[in-house]
Write a structure and sequence with these properties.
The complex is a heterodimer of chains A (304) and B (619). Helices cover 41% and strands 10% of the residues of chain A. With 304 residues, chain A is mostly helical. Among the domains of chain A are: 50 residues, no CATH class; 123 residues, Alpha-Beta Plaits (2-Layer Sandwich); 35 residues, no CATH class. In chain A, strand 2 and strand 3 form a beta hairpin. In chain A, helix 8 crosses helix 9. Chain A is elongated and about 90 Å long. In chain A, 33% of the residues are buried. In chain B, helix 9 runs antiparallel to helix 10 and helix 10 packs antiparallel against helix 20. Among the domains of chain B are: 114 residues, 2-Layer Sandwich (Beta Polymerase, domain 2); 231 residues, Cytochrome-c3 Hydrogenase, chain B, CATH 1.10.645.10. In chain B, strand 9 and strand 10 form a beta hairpin. Chain B is globular and about 65 Å long. Chain B has 21 helices and 15 strands. Classes of the chains: A mainly alpha (304), B alpha+beta (619). The site of one iron/sulfur cluster (SF4) has 12 residues of chain A, from helix 4. One iron/sulfur cluster binds next to helix 5 of chain A.
Chain lengths: 304, 619
């Protein structure tokens, strides 16, 4: 019969139309009234169409969501080196950045002029950043991570869109808050919650770092054997500075070629991270989800 | 169907040998390190190409592109990849020409699909193609100075030949590029360019051969002719063009006599950027080609570079789990893309947005999964050389977001199982029920935009467009990659070659994709916890010298990446040549012929049935 196909199609439209209101009737209007019912509207089981009332409501983003990068620094309540940079200004992120929007000024010792593993300045031009996440993926020190904040609109792009070091720096606990699973995996791969260099120093001094678990995620770090290298690095500096100087020379000799030394830690870190996922799984039974959620909620509330 | 010569599908060498016997003087092996195929004397190119097509069954010209070897051997060359639609690998042949007077005979009479690709080579490289009837710029505009893909051409914001740039580290005091290159000073015109053309709105060159010599005023005065041909510009800003795309149509009444696509409004010289980039840098840039199917683009590029890496000593291919995840991603992408294509085809037919929204509702769920796995919904940047970015997450939503996102907190495998076994089939069936029998859709689409199998092959049409014309050609079967050989699926094919069949074939393909996905699920379970990289993930691999052509069956058709690694003996970090064989671009070659004789309202639907994305067309 001619027209049957159209009627069949209209029946589908009608079903969609009705479905939109099924939940409304089922929840007798409460669907929109209470904040908790946001969950109902979002769910896989929800019927029909719904609208997320942005910006009043926002969809949560998953852990791996990437927007622009930020730099990890020590927590303000770190016992020895509060607020210290994790970045060693090795330059790998600047190299792997496809649109070349990362600018790093490597720090140098004011008296000797030799390079120190700490950035003097760090800029990211977010107009150019393509949100690819390579910088976070290849940083051998877990020092740069992808932020979840996607509301960066401003009135003047010429003055606000180059993020400097101060703007970019966020404490490690922020990273643990927005991406706890990843933060834990990374910490397990590093062998502790601390900066890799600190962990190395602890190992040299014969101390063992606390194994990272869900439960000690937000506890204060153990006092380290040695402070962060950038803070006070007189004793191990000569060797390191020598190495850096040599690399500088090598770089000058053949500008085109690079890779070399900094690639090694990167590869090592990646290698080490391969077996990592097993560790958190092993910890899983001990993991008290409720307490964890409470902690995270608390963190969020503290931040306002 | 056409009678194809029966050939052994994989035997390229036999074909080359026979060809050499036939043209003993014209053909040489390409003996450069890492290269393959043959070099054809350009004076015999047309004969050789004709023989390839007629005597050896290489009826499909996949890609034709230029390379500039400035500083290496100082010549330019055209690289052609021809296939048999019966299946099998490519026969690669090249023709070389001196840089100072680059000229290579046009192959448009052998394979009409060379049309746009030769125009592109003229536009970007300045190679002339004697015999091409319409050799004018295609992506750039007439007032553009020079041929930008030449190695010695520098863009307005030129900084260095290769990334990473020196100024970023260790002395990276930031500046914004535009501060050093004030607007207005970054445009150059050719010396003989008439600047008054810029304010001339007549655009004569576009209309020159469209029969516009007629003076409307004169006709009106004489008032004895009632009708005339009318030239209409559809686009560049038109909702039906799927972006900024323009069609100049010559109408006789409502009927189309001629259609010429004009493109390049979104051109950013992707390939030049790609040659400045390192190999890895290009990965997120491929996302921006066909931005609806970024996973597929990633895979094509990864395959090309992996072919090159495989010539080196230290490369290890992706693990089995990585391959499974890759297939999972690209097949989900195919569904995403086809849902979108069907939805927007209906938009183009005038069913404004209701079908489109129904179609893309499920797409959201797939994008949720991409976001949780790759970090972004559309710009996935997920594949790496020798693996993927990261394994699937344990849960779709992580611990942190559970606080305010209780509902999406699913175990990833549960989510995928539900999606693949329940939700997607249901929604595809619903679309089928909703649209397939509709008399309105049938009367608008059946028999409209017919493309015969011979034409589809000749014009190098790809993907659903080719298969809806009765040519069962699918790269996943014809020249398999990844784990497709062990998967059970059929190549969807339809025989009427009209819009309706192009709609049906997308439904078929989604169902085939679901079949594949159902086979992937147990494989994912089985390999759970296995590594995704056999070797180390490297950010700056040294890529052995040579050329590679990686091609995948992307949702829109065959997507190919021609990558050349050359220059630096130790293994360069940057591709010497990075070319994208864009299905959206090449399939448009057939748009004009398909539209002739149809009504103007059908143009919109025919364009919609090709399914183009301008990010890929314009590059
Ligand atoms: S890769 Fe990491 S440590 Fe190196 S410069 Fe970048 S942020 Fe700093
Ligand atoms: S996310 Fe990508 S583009 Fe942005 S700063 Fe990092 S590497 Fe560069």
């Amino acid at each position: 019969m001619y027209g049957q196909g159209i009627l069949k199609g209209l029946w589908v439209t009608f079903r969609h139309f009705v479905n939109t209101y099924v939940d409304d009737i089922r929840y007798a209007g409460r669907k929109y009234l209470r904040q908790e019912n946001f969950a109902i509207r979002q769910g896989l089981k929800a019927q029909g169409a719904f609208t997320v009332q942005y910006p009043d409501e926002k969809l949560a983003v998953p852990e791996r969501f990437r927007f622009t990068p930020f730099l990890v620094v020590n927590d303000p309540d770190h016992p020895e080196a509060p607020g210290d940079d994790w970045c060693t200004s090795c330059g790998i992120c600047a190299k792997v950045c496809p649109p070349q929007c990362i600018w790093i000024v490597r720090g140098s010792d004011p008296t000797t002029g030799r390079p120190v593993p700490q950035p003097e300045a760090f800029f990211i031009d977010i107009d150019i950043c393509m949100n690819c996440g390579f910088c976070a993926e290849f940083c051998p020190f877990d020092a740069i991570k992808m932020d979840h904040n996607y509301e960066l609109a401003s009135y003047d792009r010429t003055s606000h869109h180059i993020h400097d070091k101060q703007y970019l720096s966020r404490p490690l606990s922020y990273w643990k808050t927005i991406a706890p699973t990843t933060a834990l995996e990374e910490a397990v791969a590093r062998g502790g919650w601390e900066h890799p260099d600190v962990l190395k120093a602890m190992k040299k001094a014969g101390q063992t770092a606390v194994t990272p678990t869900w439960d000690n995620m937000f506890t204060k770090p153990e006092p380290a054997a040695k402070p962060l290298p950038p803070a006070e690095s007189a004793d191990e500096d000569p060797a390191k500075a020598e190495r850096l100087r040599k690399r500088e020379e090598a770089l000058a000799r053949k500008r085109a070629a690079e890779a070399g030394e900094p690639a090694q830690p990167a590869a090592a870190a990646v290698e080490a991270s391969a077996p990592a996922p097993a560790a958190p799984t092993a910890d899983k039974p001990k993991f008290d989800k409720q307490a964890m959620l409470e902690k995270i909620r608390q963190r969020k509330a503290d931040k306002g | 169907m056409v009678d194809y010569p029966i050939v052994k599908t994989t035997d390229i060498k036999a074909a080359v040998d026979a060809l050499k016997q036939k043209f003993p003087d014209a053909i040489q092996d390409d003996t450069r390190q890492g290269y393959g195929g043959i070099i054809v004397d350009k004076n015999h190119l047309v004969e050789v190409a004709t023989a390839l097509r007629d005597d050896f069954g290489f009826d499909y010209l996949s890609s034709a592109t230029a390379v500039d070897y400035l500083g290496i051997s100082d010549h330019m060359e055209m690289v052609y990849h021809a296939y048999r639609t019966a299946g099998g690998p490519a026969l690669v042949f090249k023709a070389q020409t001196p840089r100072d007077k680059p000229e290579i005979p046009s192959l448009i009479n052998v394979w009409p699909g060379a049309d746009f690709q030769e125009r592109e080579a003229w536009d970007l490289y300045g190679i002339k193609f004697p015999g091409h009837p319409n050799l004018k710029r295609i992506l750039l505009w007439d007032g553009f100075d020079g041929h930008p893909m030449r190695k010695d051409w520098q863009e307005a914001y030129y900084e260095e030949d290769h990334k990473p740039f020196e100024s970023r580290w260790p002395g990276g005091w930031v500046h914004r590029a535009e501060e050093r290159n004030i607007y207005g000073k970054n445009v150059k015109y050719p010396a003989d360019f008439d600047l008054s053309k810029l304010s001339d709105t007549s655009e004569e060159s576009h209309y020159a051969d469209l029969g516009l010599g007629v003076s409307v005023q004169k006709l009106a005065d004489e008032s004895h002719i009632k009708t005339d041909r009318l030239v209409v510009n559809m686009g560049p800003h038109h909702p039906s063009t799927h972006g900024v795309f323009r069609m100049i149509v010559t109408l006789n009444g409502e009927t189309i006599e001629k259609l010429e696509p004009v493109m390049g409004y979104l051109h950013r010289n992707h390939e030049k950027i790609g040659e400045r980039n390192t190999f890895l840098h290009n990965m997120p840039f491929t996302d921006r080609l066909d931005y609806l199917s970024s996973m597929g683009n990633n895979l094509g590029y990864a395959l090309a570079v992996e072919q090159l890496l495989a010539n080196g000593a230290r490369y290890q291919p992706p693990t089995y789990r990585a391959e499974c995840i890759r297939v999972l991603m690209v097949e989900l992408t195919r569904i995403v893309n086809h849902l979108w294509a069907i939805g927007f085809l209906l938009n183009d037919l005038g069913a404004f947005f209701t079908p489109a929204l129904y179609a893309i509702a499920e797409r959201e769920k797939i994008l949720d999964f991409f976001e949780a796995t790759a970090g972004s919904r559309m710009m996935c940047n997920y594949m790496r050389f020798g693996g993927v970015f990261k394994d699937l997450p344990e849960r779709i939503r992580g611990e942190a977001t559970r606080v305010n996102d209780l509902v999406r907190d699913y175990d990833t495998m549960e989510f995928l199982t539900e999606l693949i076994n329940e939700r997607l089939p249901r929604s595809i069936d619903e679309l089928d029920q909703y649209l397939t029998d509709s008399e309105i859709i049938k009367s608008r689409t059946v028999g409209v935009g017919y493309l015969s199998p011979e034409m589809a092959i000749a014009y190098s049409a790809a993907g659903p467009l080719l298969r809806a014309s009765g040519v069962p050609y699918d790269v996943r079967r014809a020249d398999p990659y990844s784990i497709y050989p062990e998967l059970d699926f059929d190549v969807a094919v339809r025989y009427n070659g009209d819009i309706y069949d192009r709609y049906l074939i997308r439904l078929d393909e989604m169902r085939e994709s679901l079949r594949i996905l159902k086979q992937i699920l147990p494989r994912l379970e089985r390999t759970r916890g296995e590594a995704i990289f056999a070797g180390n993930k490297q950010h700056t691999p040294r890529v052995p010298l040579g050329e590679a052509y990686g091609r995948v069956e992307n949702p829109k058709g065959e997507l190919g990446f021609y990558v050349v690694s050359a220059g630096d003996e130790k293994g360069p970090q940057n591709p010497w040549r990075y070319h994208v064989r864009a299905p959206s671009f090449i399939s448009l070659t057939a748009l004009g012929p398909m539209c002739i004789g149809h009504k103007v309202a059908d143009v919109v639907a025919i364009l919609g049935s090709i399914d183009i994305v301008l990010g890929e067309t314009d590059r």
